[in-house]
Specification:
Blueprint (H helix, E strand, L loop, with lengths): L2 H18 L20 E6 L12 H17 L4 E7 L15 H4 L12 H11 L3 E6 L17 H4 L4 E4 L2 E4 L4 H17 L4 E4 L16 H7 L10 H23 L4 E4 L24 H5 L3 H6 L5 E2 L14 H9 L6 E2 L1 E4 H6 L9 H10 L5 E5 L1 H5 L5 H9 L21 E7 L4 E6 L12 E8 L12 E5 L3 E3 L8 E9 L9 E6 L1
Parallel strand pairs: 1-2, 1-11, 2-3, 3-6, 6-7, 7-8, 8-9, 10-11
Antiparallel strand pairs: 4-5, 12-13, 13-16, 14-15, 14-17, 17-18
Helix pairs in contact: 1-8, 2-4, 6-8
Length: about 525
């Protein structure tokens, strides 16, 4: 299938789905081995805002750092990187819309040396390791303090009336339609020019409230609210609608550009407190709320299919008096409308909180996340703690929870057909190597065709079971695998499957080999 035809077909199907505002249910996961799931999202957030280390590196050093980072995260079983590429309306990539990030070179608008493009490099290096790259954008934030100056080419200088100061920070005014258009333009630019697997937004929608200070959107409210059907007493509803429109329009932008690229959010961990909801549908918590304080109606986005995955930040401890992790994970597991749900885990808080036996909460949290059929994985904050092996986290993941490789859960709501099987599976000998090779059917530029491969291995007489992660020898984007030498006495069956861009897996092609 040609890309143009694929895009139009997927766009049509997806836009029909969005316009219907229905619930696209997916089949609940059924893991043959719940302790070692074959399919699981295993992400790590790599933030750049506030990070000082990149400013101190030249492009060569930064490349080396990224390579080391990805090697370490891959060794810990991470299969998706959430990389912050737009921390403050600036860019960790080449952009004609926004200046280079201050957190990259120390001065906003200053390019890195050697024509270096961090996002392009990270995409390439992630895909070499068959890890996903999710481009993480903060939609509204422009500065973190009054001390930060904006580059001469920053959009603020052209349209200062479209921005608001709240506290000491500068923001796009979410109520102005042109700002939504601009953010969607930024998203389209990234999706069109880079082979990212997803666009990601975190918990910063309307800013976290400052006690005693009102968000200064009187002008945009008076200008737009009445025309959009909101009365003077409905400012909260109007604000929620502004964010709703942004989320819906971002999703539609992605669909019209590359419909196989996903859109995910990682909201603050509390949707609403039970006491705030007339019907008692909120969680048994007592904290800041997405719906009421950040104007983020996450449940609506998930229900309407405006996001492809939801990753709430459940950073509290089990037993926390205001926001108990155990209660929150149960609430989210039962309020995600059958869509992809991953859990945001705070590494330090998880490992620092010890029980009476001196053990951290990692085991209990991981077991809880895997106990719900509606949860398909975890994401760890921050990814740097895994690199540092904070209190042994990298070893715990590699040796236990991520002992075997895992495929990303399939996005069957976007596309549900399996790709074609590989063909011509054969042994191949060179003077130096013994290889297993195969041939891909179809154009690999077509996301419905094979993008990567899963190689399973079974001992002679062992039951061939592709549902068990322990039988996976390798997950790779390459069409060959080097085989070991075991004296020519051991017989194995190798099975190779193909997986498309939506993570649908084909049937296997097998071959018996003696090593």
């Amino acid at each position: 299938m040609k890309i143009r035809q694929l895009s139009s077909n997927l766009i049509l199907a997806a836009l029909v789905f969005l316009s219907s505002c229905g619930i696209q249910k997916k089949v609940a996961k059924q893991e043959a081995d719940p302790q070692h799931p074959k399919r699981e999202f295993r992400g790590a957030w790599i933030h750049t805002v506030g990070q000082a280390q990149y400013v101190q590196m030249n492009s060569r050093q930064m490349k080396d750092y990224f390579v080391k980072m990805l090697d370490q995260l891959q060794a810990a079983g991470i299969n998706a990187i959430i990389f912050q590429v737009r921390p403050q309306a600036d860019a960790f990539y080449k952009s004609e819309l926004e200046p280079w990030s201050r957190y990259l070179t120390g001065v906003q608008g200053k390019a890195p040396d050697g024509d270096f493009d961090p996002l392009a490099f990270m995409v390439e290096e992630c895909h070499k390791r068959n890890m996903e790259l999710h481009a993480w954008l903060n939609p509204y934030r422009v500065t973190n303090s009054e001390l930060q100056t904006l580059a001469p080419n920053h959009i603020y200088h052209r349209y200062p009336e479209r921005f608001l100061k709240y506290g000491t920070q500068l923001y796009f005014d979410p109520g102005i339609p042109e700002n939504r258009d601009f953010i969607c333009k930024v998203v389209k630019d990234i999706v069109m020019r880079y082979a990212v697997d997803a666009i990601h937004m975190d918990d910063y929608f309307y800013p976290y409230p400052i006690p005693g200070e009102k968000f200064p959107d009187d002008v945009s409210f008076s200008h737009y609210a009445a025309a959009q059907g909101f009365s003077n007493s409905q400012r909260d509803d109007w604000r929620r609608n502004n964010v709703n429109m942004l989320i819906k329009e971002v999703k539609e932008t992605i669909l019209k550009t590359k419909p196989w690229v996903r859109f995910g959010v990682s909201p603050f961990g509390i949707y609403r407190n039970k006491k705030s909801t007339p019907d008692g549908s909120g969680s048994e918590t007592n904290g800041l709320q997405n719906y009421d304080d950040l104007y983020a109606d996450v449940k609506l986005w998930v229900k309407n299919g405006w996001v492809d995955y939801n990753m709430p930040q459940l950073y509290w401890e089990i037993g926390h008096p205001a926001a108990d992790y155990a209660k929150l994970i149960s609430w989210w597991a039962n309020n995600n409308y059958g869509q992809h749900l991953y859990i945001g885990q705070d590494v330090k808080r998880t490992l620092d909180k010890l029980n009476a036996n001196g053990e951290s909460q990692l085991k209990e949290k991981m077991e809880l996340s895997r106990s719900y059929s509606t949860i398909q994985g975890n994401c760890f904050w921050p990814g740097y703690t895994i690199m540092e092996n904070y209190k042994g986290i990298a070893g715990e993941l590699a040796g236990n929870y991520h002992k075997y490789p895992a495929l990303i859960p399939a996005y069957t709501a976007l596309h549900h057909k399996s790709p074609k099987k590989v063909s011509n599976l054969e042994e191949y000998f060179t003077p130096e190597k013994h290889l297993l090779r195969w041939v891909v059917k179809g154009d690999r530029n077509d996301p419905e065709n094979a993008q990567y491969f899963v190689v399973y291995r079974f001992k002679s007489g062992e039951k061939e079971d592709l549902s068990l992660a322990r039988n996976i020898l390798k997950i790779s984007r390459y069409t060959e695998l080097e085989l070991p030498y075991e004296g020519g006495k051991n017989s194995y069956k190798y099975v190779v499957t193909a997986v498309d861009a939506f993570h649908n897996e084909s049937a296997g092609k097998s071959k018996k080999i003696k090593l």
